[in-house]
Amino acid sequence: MRLTSLFLILLPLGNFSFSQNIYGSLTYGVMGYRADYSDLQKSYASYITFMEPILSENNLKFTAVDDNFSNDALTGAFIFQAGVGQDGYSIVFTAMSTKTSQSRDVYWSNGFGRNFTWKETRRETLFDVGFFGTKRFDFYGTFGVNWNWTRMVSYYIYPDKSRNLSHEFAYNGVYKKYTVGLSFGGGLRFRFKNFIALECRYLYSKIGIGGIAKSEDFGLSDNSITKNPDYSYFPEDFLAPISITSGNELRPYFNRHSITLSAVFYLNLEELRKKRKT
Asked: CA 247 to CA 233: how far, in whole Å?
């Protein structure tokens, strides 16, 4: 009786598997995105304003200042996908990883300066749910979780262009923060031939999940034991009081919109069946 019941359960799944597309690929795509770096831009701009009177008091001035951090970027994306689909309906698990970096330099008239290097590693774990399809196109909605490792590396620059990261300078450090958020969007796959499809995906990634508000969260921090505790957080505003209790810390809640283009490999088992019969 048990074997008969198991057979009755598996029989529909077996019929389904022979008329479906099976998706499975590890590919490299291209992502263009726009992020809300307004707090990061505010921090950089405030540093310039903060340093101007200090330099003036020492008969110095800025001789070179890079433009502020950009909201827009183009980067590569590693993408893993696995799933199944039939008659326009599909469920595909997608894991996507991207890395971005921006570097900004400021120099003073004595040849010294400071470098700020912003780095992000973002990983998305998503479920793509197909709701409509044609012979060549599949349309899907997607939702999931984003995992973000962010850091600001702040160096002191010498006239010979060498860099110092030691804590003898208050604003030197490697300031880190890990955040989690929710992502959702949609996309389409163009199955222009068996085995290969082209995919275009839009995704909105919002930082923050659960009951912790941005204002209550900790910011980018360097917790090295040799660092002055009052400078263990990277300032959001260099013109405001800076201390371990001031709350003046850069919180990398940088939401972003992105579009990713990539290839997807799949098997159309119905087409394979037809070829075997012929």
From this structure: 9
